[in-house]
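PROTEIN DESIGN WORKSHEET
SECTION A - STRUCTURE
LENGTH: 169
TOKENS:
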């Protein structure tokens, strides 16, 4: 399975754009994407990672595991997009249940080749998992985008990342 790098993750999350809300919430470390510690006081519910649901001798430590490790696969990107801060990613690019990202991604320019492939693999991985285990419960699915981002956690907190950030600006 193809592995993707930090640059691909940054492009998908638009971390290098000046108006990226994700840049306020996520930081890139050598091992992957992490929720910024200062944001935990505002939205602890965004701190879910795949490691929270793994148990076993070789399971990563949920206290230190990244939300999305580097390098990552399409399957790991799909897991990132299920919950926590990564859930807003899915709403940016389409409905996970469709099994493919929206047409904007599919029509993206050549320099977006790697992000496009990673997203296509993630959406396909979600669809394949859904075929095996059943539909993702409606109450856990994304709500319509709010300020470009959404997730079940945003609905539960009645806010968006921009409303949850410190007000000392």
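SECTION B - SEQUENCE
RESIDUE ASSIGNMENT:
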């Amino acid at each position: 399975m193809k592995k993707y790098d930090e640059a691909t993750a940054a492009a998908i999350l638009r971390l290098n754009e000046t108006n990226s809300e994700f840049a306020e919430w996520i930081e890139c470390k050598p091992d992957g994407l992490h929720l910024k510690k200062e944001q935990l006081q505002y939205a602890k519910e965004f701190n879910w990672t795949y490691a929270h649901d793994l148990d076993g001798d070789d399971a990563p430590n949920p206290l230190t595991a990244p939300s999305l490790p580097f390098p990552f696969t399409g399957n790991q990107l799909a897991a990132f997009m299920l919950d926590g801060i990564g859930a807003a990613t899915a709403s940016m690019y389409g409905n996970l249940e469709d099994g493919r990202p929206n047409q904007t991604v599919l029509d993206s320019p050549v320099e977006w080749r790697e992000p496009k492939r990673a997203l296509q693999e993630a959406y396909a991985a979600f669809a394949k998992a859904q075929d095996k285990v059943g539909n993702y419960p409606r109450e856990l699915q994304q709500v319509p985008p709010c300020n470009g981002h959404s997730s079940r956690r945003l609905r539960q907190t009645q806010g968006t990342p921009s409303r949850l950030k410190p007000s000392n600006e």
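SECTION C - NOTES
Residues 96 and 158 are 22 Å apart (CA to CA).
The first helix runs from residue 6 to 13.
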